Records
---
Amino acid sequence: MKELNLTRPDDWHLHLRDDVVLDSVLEATATDFSRAIVMPNLVPPVLTQKDAEQYRDRIKQSCQRLSGAAAEFEPLMTLYLTEATDANDLVSAHQAGVIQAVKLYPAGATTNSASGVQDIKKVYPVLEAMQKADVVLCMHGEVTDPEIDIFDREAVFIERVLTPIRKAFPELRIVLEHVTTADGVNYVQSQDRYQACTLTPHHLVINRNHMLVGGIRPHYYCLPILKRREHQEALVKAATSGDARIFLGTDSAPHVTHTKENACGCAGVFNALNTMSVLASVFEAANALDKLEAFTSLNGPAFYGLPVNSAKMTLRKQDEPVVFPQTLPCGDETLTVFDPGMPLHWHVAKSAH
Ligand code: DOR
Ligand code: ZN
């Protein structure tokens, strides 16, 4: 197949940051995606309805420089859950249509998570209010217990944190984000329609060998960390299964190049520019191009209770590899674009509102 038409996709997990980084990265997402769930881990974090409104307005302002479909990009805002979150403010932000979801970061789990949750029981009253008001909870699913090996943190989170939350709040809609293990996708697929997960393009195409064999590749360092190949294969199987609970969240997470190529490098893969090309390759290799649209464009809106985009996208396959820039400018610095380490032949040929 040389051409594929699909509903224009959305990104259900995205970091846009703020200021100069926001202005540098927004176009990459807005060109290919109609909407994105925007992560609240700014410094300081997006804590209140007012913070979310102001951040949304800064994103919309930045959009005004763009043209065509990109100018119509719709940010779907989130609040950063802390032990001090005011449930009334949260519910009001949701009812006013300002936020679509709330994000749980276990304190210390990842970039800018210091204000996250230390004792999960302390936020149970907020989760209760969210269940009642039907607000989606997005989770960074890793424990931070120093005794737990970094490669096991997702599986242990499911056992220690997610399973009790599911029991206590059976009708709370939960997205286990950027799942990286067979344990994660198996858990989600064993649950009911209140439990979903997102998968990133990078966890579908690379595993820890790509990051660590023959030299350390800091641009592949992200959290949750890449796992062994068997897990990667389980993720591909899940992504291409068509299961309505599984959808795309790129976790595109820009950090300027020198902060990644560093003795203590930041976690995050900046993949927004080539996500659709990477995914088309993965789905084609799995003989599942017919399932791509469900993963990128249909399952997410269904879970969030939002309309499917009416706009379309055409992906086209060409003989010679598609050339993407290796970096994007970001003020005086650069952002290094995700290199999947294989030739990409699919590209977005047409995308319009
Ligand atoms: O690799 C990651 N980068 N994982 C996260 O959970 C956060 C993100 C970021 O904000 O840089
Ligand atoms: Zn993220």
---
Amino acid sequence: MNDYIERVIQNAQKINNNQPEFIQALKEVLTSLEPIISSNDVYEKNAILERMTEPERIIMFRVPWVDDSGKIRINRGYRVQFSSLIGPYKGGLRFAPSVNLSVMKFLGFEQIFKNALTGLPIGGAKGGSDFDPKGKSDNEVMRFCQSFMTELYRHIGQDVDVPAGDIGVGAREIGYLFGQYKRIKNAYEGGVLTGKSVCYGGSLARTEATGYGLLFYMREMLKHHDITLQNKIVTVSGSGNVAIYAVEKAQNFGAKVVAMSDSNGCIYDENGIDLACIKEIKEVRRGRIKEYLNTHPKAKYFENNNDGVSPIWRIKTDIALPCATQNELSLEAAKILVDNGVIAVGEGANMPSTMEAIDYFHEHGVLFAPAKAANAGGVATSAIEMSQNSMRYYYTFEEVENKLEQIMINIFNECKKASDEAGLKDNYVAGANIAAFKKLAQAMLAQGIV
Ligand code: NDP
């Protein structure tokens, strides 16, 4: 490995104790930058990697709220403002018990590169809380969101930092957060949050954007290998925002999606998933995926048994789309997928595959679409939402979707060009990292030591 990269990784490990997810993300990016870092000492001379791997600012705060029984609850809130190099900080908020500083920093770090790939003027950030919205009443979620925003509002703004949704933060939570922000600021600053409902400033097609974008990217990647999605068997982990709209677009492209999951287990329907039923369970009732069997008795349900392989990856498929959470696809799962003849893997979630799994896919000729490129459609459409808010104007669904499609085509082409130029044919992981890094490093050099 290049000396400079090795030193930066070693130092990052030393100063970021107990942050395994952050170190994993950092290693994945930095090791893939070898061809460009070795080609020019300008990066080392200007400490580009050291600067890029240290967040500009981290905010951590107490979030007190009262539950329905009158008990006082305390959660921890975070906002990691990682980089404002090319635009206001931008990235989602995650509410989940697994949230901690390491997870926030890995997501914020990934976001810088992803946002650069979109070609739009947005920096990188991530935030959230260890609050779990699951099982909470609407009023509890509202009180939590109001308390969270009562601290966060002083750190954000439509030209400063623009949060959005992520795991556990959907239209309901964004609505409560926006309402409290507007109340405190006594101003309608539409562009301060994205993922808003269309009735008060949201963009058409934002809900669909990440899942649709993933399929546009997948289609482009397959096209370069003379493969189409028509009649392909597809499995999609998760059944949240990203997963549902990935399934919708895959079905529109003629693929047959046979499995989806949640954190308890997965369903398999050999006739093809009935998406209307999944939407009813997940978007309307906030239920569990196994309820699918109530109306589809011929489908099968496999419970997670925590043996290191989610049951969904044991199902034979042509295309696997991990759309749930980080590190959900292990090396062992990758081996099973390869043995079962998988052609392509596309990451809808952030860092769902371990580094060992990605290496295994590359070694076995599986086409691999990395998260920071393949799921960038969500944040790209958030940027389109911000621009509509600034213009005080709305695009139609088709206008937004067409822009999204073009952005995803551009991202794929950039990844391909960068991987070809680095002599790493079809390595879109390296391609995405190198293409984004070049843009960011150029901006960093231009702005001086700040
Ligand atoms: P949601 O909260 O809408 O859905 C998350 C889904 O993943 C749920 O079905 C959830 O199941 C499942 N899940 C969570 N943890 C696990 C686990 N440990 N094992 C198996 N399944 C699990 O989130 P999103 O769809 O918005 O986000 C999913 C992923 O996509 C995340 O990695 C996120 O960072 C990423 N992403 C999201 C974007 C967006 O626009 N929303 C943009 C780019 C990336 P359960 O209901 O049981 O918890």
---
Amino acid sequence: MVDRSATELAVEAGAGSSRFVRACLRQPVDRTPVWFLRQAGRYMPEYMAVRKHHTLLDICRTPEIAAEVTITAAERLGVDAAIIFADLLLPLTPMGLDFEFVAGEGPVVHTPIRSLEHVQALRVDRVEELGYVAKAIEKVATHFAGPRADGDTLGIIGFCGAPWTLAAYMIEGGKQSGGDRNYIETKKMMYSNGAAWSLLMEKIVTVLVAYAQQQVEAGADVIQVFDSWVGKLSVHDYRQYCLGWSTELVQRIKALGVPVIYFGVETASLLPAMSETGADVMGLDWRVPLEVGWKAVGPGCAVQGNLDPIALFAPEDVLKEQVREVLRAADGRPGHIFNLGHGIVPTTPVESVIRVVEWVKELGAR
Ligand code: CP3
């Protein structure tokens, strides 16, 4: 088991602590902090208005616009943290892999990685090209500097992918490589080409640590590591082929002096292994009852989650009861951050999202 206290010491020595950061470190808070996965996205008219004039990648690569989209979503919803508007796949470009977002299909990588030679050709020395994300974070940090009306400082979240999930996009080619795939090409390399797999994992970790460092230096208070498709792995295979690399990534980001949130989907059986990375916070999807998930990661880890994002389509009384149930399961213990179990989907009513924030503020008060 990895020591969690290192982050705590670094954070105490450094950044001013918001209720969001305090909860990440399992310190007492006046009320449960709340934010949402994919809080800036296609369900929000303000985002769609920007999207009308810019592609997704244009928004990500233009710090002024990325910052504006990030800030607008956080302010409209009244949440306690802002996640920088970016995408998981941005590091592929400086590594030498071209990709695009194809309407209706999602991300597509044009020349997927399939051999040791492909992996050897990947670049790890151009991470500074991702500096536009750090610039956007700087703008968000400047905007949210100092306490808000309630005296608390808004938390700023930077993020990156986890080695398994990023490798899955690079090897499958991205096309529909979401939760509905079998990851045959990725697992083939993992099982049968150890040299290629290890080198790929090592290169991804090298790039992501440098990328996370840029984000922390620009003002990110916390880094979230998205392992969105880790639930496609057996516990055995996760331990054998991925846990070591995830642990190295998490530990090296923690050494930058910020708490790390580690998030995946369909992780109920993987949670004990995932918590061995030493992440400060485990993001839970909605399939696992919060108290069961918390027990699985142990009392030394905070938890984030885990309302079903589709509950946001339920009538008000049903939705409020579900919010109450999540808070009841957390039982006011230090170290719970209210969130969804995965991202807000398009067509979600914005009013429902805002209502949930209001209820967490009311019902999650100590
Ligand atoms: O508000 C926020 O949460 C920050 C923005 C954010 C985006 N992508 C912007 C985006 C974040 C945190 C991500 C991370 C990301 N990107 C993940 C991990 C999070 C998760 O959901 O598990 C993944 C798997 C990706 C890769 C990716 N990007 C996919 C699979 C898609 C969907 C394609 C589609 O058309 O549905 C994207 C596109 C994307 N990234 C959108 C947004 C707002 C929507 C597309 C658009 O605006 O055109």
